[in-house]
Write a structure and sequence with these properties.
- There is one protein chain.
- The protein is mainly alpha-helical and 176 residues long.
- It has a domain of 120 residues.
- The protein is 51% helix and 11% strand.
- The protein is built from seven helices and six strands, in the order ββββααααββααα.
- The radius of gyration is 21 Å and the shape is elongated.
- It starts with a strand and ends in a 16-residue tail after the last helix.
């Protein structure tokens, strides 16, 4: 089935397609995309596991390694994601798992036993913005970049354009 596009161009309507290693769907579902990014991020994290668990390197250097090696793999193409709260939570869980590998645990002062760091403690130890804030700032930067492109570009028209036609019957999806 074909549909009319911008400038009366005709585009083939598809359920999903892959562009620059990113899978885009017609319903803008990104769960599978985020899952594949997590897999790639875990592979990358395992490849630098010896560095992250080394006691010879400082915590700040390990965080810089995480920010320059692991997070770019996970956040590739995040400018196009429209996140739900569930997806934001999964991203924070992934980030906390990586941070726990860096900061290890804490020894309890009373029982002298090792315990896992709580999320609040991880946030205090990590001075960098969390992964969800990074995604939102990248999306804002992309929107500003597209807005500067000018009216002649198709991407700009998609950003500021208003869809024509009537909405379907029923309750709208709470997605955007």
């Amino acid at each position: 089935m074909d549909g009319k596009g911008v400038d009366n161009s005709v585009f083939e309507r598809v359920e999903e397609f892959k562009c620059l290693r990113t899978t885009l769907t017609n319903q803008n579902f990104i769960q599978e995309e985020i899952q594949s990014k997590f897999k790639s991020g875990n592979v990358c994290c395992r490849s630098v596991q010896n560095i992250l668990s080394s006691s010879l390197l400082s915590k700040n250097l390990k965080i810089k390694i995480c920010r320059t090696i692991i997070l770019p793999v996970v956040l590739y193409g995040c400018e196009t994601w429209s996140l739900t709260l569930w997806e934001e939570r999964r991203l924070r869980v992934f980030e906390n798992r990586v941070l726990r590998r860096i900061f290890w645990g804490r020894r309890d002062k009373v029982t002298r036993e090792w315990r896992k760091l709580q999320n609040e403690e991880l946030n205090e130890l990590n001075c960098s913005p969390n992964i969800v804030r990074v995604i939102k700032s990248r999306r804002m930067g992309w929107a500003v970049h597209v807005a500067r492109m000018g009216e002649g570009r198709v991407v700009y028209t998609v950003l500021v354009g208003k869809p024509e036609g009537k909405r379907p019957l029923g309750r709208p999806r709470r997605r955007w």
